[in-house]
Amino acid sequence: MVPLSWYMFLSMVVFAIGVFGFLSRRNIIIMFMSIELMLNAVNINLISLSHYLQDLRGQILAFFVIAVAAAEAAIGLAIVIALFRNKATAHVDEVKEMRG
Amino acid sequence: MKYYLLIPFLPLTAFIINILLGKEVLREKAHWPSILAVVGSFFITITSVLPQITAGKIINEDLYTWIVSGTFNASVGFLIDPLTAVMLIVVTTCASLIHIYAVGYMHGDTGYYRFFAYLSLFTFFMLMLVMANNFLQLYFGWEGVGLCSYFLIGYYFNKKSAADAGKKAFIVNRFGDFGFGLGVFMIFLTFGTLHYVPVFANAATMIGKTVNFLGYNVDLPTLVALLLFCGAVGKSAQIPLHVWLPDAMEGPTPVSALIHAATMVTAGVFMVARCNVIFNLSEVAMNTVAIIGALTMFFAATIAIVQNDIKRIIAYSTCSHLGYMFLACGVGAYAAGIFHLYTHAFFKALLFLAAGSVIHAVHTNDIQEMGGLKKYMPITYAVFVIAGLSAGGFPGLSGFFSKDEIIWSAYASHSHVGKFVWILALAGAFFTPFYTFRLIFLTFHGKYRGGHHEEHHGGHGSQHGEHHIHESPKVMTVPLVLLAVGAVAAGWVGIPPLLGGGAHFAEFLKPVVGHPEFHGTHAEEWGVMGLSTTLVMIGLGLSAFLYLRKTDLPEKIAKGFKPMYRMLFNKYYIDELYHYTIVNPTLWIANKVLVAVTDAKMIEGVVNGVPGLIGKFSQQLRRVQTGLAQHYGIIMAAGAFFIIALVLLLR
User: Fold this and answer.
1) Which chain B positions have a beta carbon within 8 Å of A96's beta carbon?
2) Cβ contact (<8 Å) for B634 and A31?
3) Range of the domain at A68
4) Stated pTM of the model
5) How is chain B split among helix, strand and coil, in percent rounded to 5?
6) Which of B617, B621, B628, B641 to mutate: most A Cβ within 10 Å?
7) Which terminus of chain A, N or C, has less C-beta within 10 A?
8) Which tens digit of pLDDT belongs to each residue from B52-110?
9) CATH number at residue A68
10) Is A91 on the interface with B (CB under 8 A)?
């Protein structure tokens, strides 16, 4: 039986990798993948705690997160394609039209 | 049905119609609503109000509660007694004739509808003023006529002198109205009400009371009376606030006739007569009224002798006659003052309208450029002479009876002040016909001196200009003739018993203004009348001698008494005095303190400073938005970290 703290630790590590990847990488696809990592870390957390607490609400919430993540990935990739068609780049440093 | 309500509200309706529809719909027909309204008011006055008042009925009703605040209660109410009835006759008669005259005079003017709209509005305010039954409504009308006066003086607003004259009239009147407003406050503080009837009924309770005013203990009746008189001094152009009236001549001539001769400027006299109960309580106030009136009468008359602008001469004459009215009020002869107000309205409106007819023909105000107009304008000439004789106090005409009544009252009041003002009144009796006929002789007699404007381009010389002069159209001459009838006959209602009359006018007003206790023998009365009439004749004769016979003599006299002539010509330098003592310091404060410090530094500082600070802050803040997703991410992460840390630490 794997103890809860291991799951929590795994979740933390995956989330930290996601945060680090999001902040350190400039390629917008990789940044998306980092976001997916963070979301999945949250999912691990939710499901392990759901199991631990014998409460299904955590698993239901995890399904919501997956659904949102799918939608986000679809829209996000569409934006990436639109961006690439306009700027011929996927590098976020070169996209700073919104600079104040 | 309160039929008398129509008297003020018909002109108000005409104003509303004209100001809304005049420009686009009525255009050249804009005079119809105004004329119909004012003539309607006239007929209601004559047919409905006057019979009731002469039958001894007094209308005094509150119709609408205007303001209620604690114990303060102001209402819109109307009081029609003999005094108001006289004013109603004066206002509606003169206003009707002048409205009709203005159709001819203002014909083709671009602001035709505007002119008639303001004229109607003025009539409304003037009627509200005279019909009020409380001081607040009096004040409402008082300020309203001042406003319309400002509109109409500055009617030709693209002419700078006219715009300035309007401002001057308005500002000078503020000085007087400030005192008047304080007077109304004092009345409310003393009596707790502003209605005429309770105030005048309890006026005697003021006797002997004092009030602390600016650190001095002042006799209460004197203070109230003098504060009210302040307003009258401003509105009726008495020394020292007379300077606005001559400048007000920049307005169109019908305005000068209606507002600055017949009605508005007499509001001060009306107010003093209305408040006679208060004035009678204070000898100081009465003497002040008499002396200010007499001085204005004398100084304005002397200025009028040397002026060359046809309307300004008549304006100074108006000042002078208003002085006569105050003089009469000051010696207690209110009925005589109102009688002069009533006759003066006719002959002075006539003088102005006749002058307007002349100006209409020759297109100049300078009497040195006129002359010999008699043969071109016979009707104008005839009515001018009638008005001049009436104004000068020629025996048998309106002006004679009222002026003689005043001079006799001053003589018979048997006080030092009475004697002093009597002497000035006699001097005025000499000057008035003198300057009036100087004006008539220079305008209508002799040879035409104008026309050198045409010489520049026409080359025909004076003949060219002279042939253009013609009599005014019927719409102007008919009102002139009707007013001339008034100038001759209006005074016949007040012929003194000495000359076989019944003094009906004084009897009519007796319930309102009382009757002074004068003692004098018939011989004295004859003597005073003879003396003043002789002076009138001398004035007339001297004028004829100087301006008809020895026409080169006036210039020699002017050269001989150069300093005096210059002083009179420059109106005793009072305008200059005010310019240096009041206008310049005020402008200096305005420019150097208010504009430079208060406005530019303080108000602009706040108004521009706050947005400036916000702008600077925003300039810094916008750097946060870099456009780099990583920066946003790290700020989010740091924020989340911070909040979680906070939650964990504070648990």
Assistant:
1) 626-628
2) no
3) 4-92
4) 0.81
5) 80, 5, 15
6) B628
7) N
8) 888 888 889 888 898 888 888 889 999 999 999 999 999 999 999 999 999 999 988 88
9) 1.10.287.3510
10) no
